[in-house]
Each structure stands twice: as structure tokens, then as C-alpha cells.
Structure to design on (270 residues):
């Protein structure tokens, strides 16, 4: 893939698949794609919220692992045995055990390597979704990614090993919703910038530390930071009795200088 094509793919992925996700998380996903020759547009990787800090974890999908296997240049085969109902020795309860193996033939050495393993149904099954409608298929997917990941030395956790089908993960909420833009519009109006979109855009870029095209281009945390700065500026200007007609000029002066106006500095400027 040429550098120009990589840039185009990364841009499309950022805009269409990873919109609203923090840049550092997207960059990590794209770096992993580059490392393993994956295509984010084909859902070879997915980003799923990982906790209260709103960060996203990168997972490879079964399709991504199959791509790595096919691109390896090695002859390989995947075998899955019939599922067996038996007692799970770890829980002491009835369970379903599925076993299989991946055979990889290395033409350079003439050797065949066999990677074997098995997975218990109860250790991965989830309530609802594909686990209810297609439990056998989901169980087999877990086994397949379990084996492929080890056979082709992939360090990224497969999303199916988390009990999630990659098709379902595509419809999961990828990030909290942005605060409503109406508040940003109201605050900008109070700063005299209601009709100066370019200054508002440049101010937002300075606040979040990267170039943005508008409010919709901000991530949730970035939008909160931008709104917090606007609220502080409005509050200080109102307390300093700075007229709206002068507020816009003060903000423009800082933005033209490439600086983010601090509330206390604005009060002094008034």
C-alpha cells in the first residue's frame, strides 16, 4: 500500500468508523493495522470503550486474523472437531468443549507446525445477541481466533475472545455523545463570536491542541474542555463588565497570536 493510499484509508477510517474517538486511540489502532498489514475499512480492527476513562481498546477481528494468515505466504489449514458435552474440570458443571488445530507449513524449512487447543462454551458465552441466535457459530469463532492468533503470532486480543461478535461490535456505542452544540452557540454569542466561525474554529483548535474543522470534529472530552473554556471566558468578561462588542476583539487578539485566552488575562485586558 502506497503512502498516499495509507493516508486516504486512515482519513476515511477516522471520519467514518472512528468519529468521536480520542486521537491517541485511533492512532494506536492505525499503527496496529500498519504493523500487521490490516485494513481498518474492512473492519479488521475495532475500537470498543474500555471503562470510565472513556478510552477505547483495540481488538483484532476474526476477519483480520484470517487476513494475516492468508497474507503470510504459508500454506495452512484449520480443523475443528465435533463439540463434546462433558464436565468442565474447572467448574465441575456440565459444559461443551470444542477442540481444533491449525497446521502451518513453512516452505523455507519444509516443516509443518501444529497449534492445538480447545475452548469451553461457558467461558465465553454471553447473554443475548449472536450467542443466543447462533451459539454454535460463535463458539467456533472463538476457537478459530484462539488458534489463529497463536499460529500467526498476533499480539492483539481478538474481539471474539471477549465474547463479542465483530459485527455486533460495529454497532456498539463507540463514545459518549457530544454535549449539545446549542450551548457552544450560546456561549460564542455571549463572546460576540456568533457570526465569526473561523475565529471560533481556531479557538477550539488551540484549546484541544489539534486542528479541527468544527464542533462536530471534537471528541467528547475535547468538547467538554472547549465548553469549559468558553464558560470561564464569558463569566470573567461579564464580571469585568466588558461589552460584547469588545469581547470578540479581545478573543481574536489572542487567537491571532496563537494563544488560548485565560480568564484572568481577559479580565486584565478589559
Amino acid at each position: 500500500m502506497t503512502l498516499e493510499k495509507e493516508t486516504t484509508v486512515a482519513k476515511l477510517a477516522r471520519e467514518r468508523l472512528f468519529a468521536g474517538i480520542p486521537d491517541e486511540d485511533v492512532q494506536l489502532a492505525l499503527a496496529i493495522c500498519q504493523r500487521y498489514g490490516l485494513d481498518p475499512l474492512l473492519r479488521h480492527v475495532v475500537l470498543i470503550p474500555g471503562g470510565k476513562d472513556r478510552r477505547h481498546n483495540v481488538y483484532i477481528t476474526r476477519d483480520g486474523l484470517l487476513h494475516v494468515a492468508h497474507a503470510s505466504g504459508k500454506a495452512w489449514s484449520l480443523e475443528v472437531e465435533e463439540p463434546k458435552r462433558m464436565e468442565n474440570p474447572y467448574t465441575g458443571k456440565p459444559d461443551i468443549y470444542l477442540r481444533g488445530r491449525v497446521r502451518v507449513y513453512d516452505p523455507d524449512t519444509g516443516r509443518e507446525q501444529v497449534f492445538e487447543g480447545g475452548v469451553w462454551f461457558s467461558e465465553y458465552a454471553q447473554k443475548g445477541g449472536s450467542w443466543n441466535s447462533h451459539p454454535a457459530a460463535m463458539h467456533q469463532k472463538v476457537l478459530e481466533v484462539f488458534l489463529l492468533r497463536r499460529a500467526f503470532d498476533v499480539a492483539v486480543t481478538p474481539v471474539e475472545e471477549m465474547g463479542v461478535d465483530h459485527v455486533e461490535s460495529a454497532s456498539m456505542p463507540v463514545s459518549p455523545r457530544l454535549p449539545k452544540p446549542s450551548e457552544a452557540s450560546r456561549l460564542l454569542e455571549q463572546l460576540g463570536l456568533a457570526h465569526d466561525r473561523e475565529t471560533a474554529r481556531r479557538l477550539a483548535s488551540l484549546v484541544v491542541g489539534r486542528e479541527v474543522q468544527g464542533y462536530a470534529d471534537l471528541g467528547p472530552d475535547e468538547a467538554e474542555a472547549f465548553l469549559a473554556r468558553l464558560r470561564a471566558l464569558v463569566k470573567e468578561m461579564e464580571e469585568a463588565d466588558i461589552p460584547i462588542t469588545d469581547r470578540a476583539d479581545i478573543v481574536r487578539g489572542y487567537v491571532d497570536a496563537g494563544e488560548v485566552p485565560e480568564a484572568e488575562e481577559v479580565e486584565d485586558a478589559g
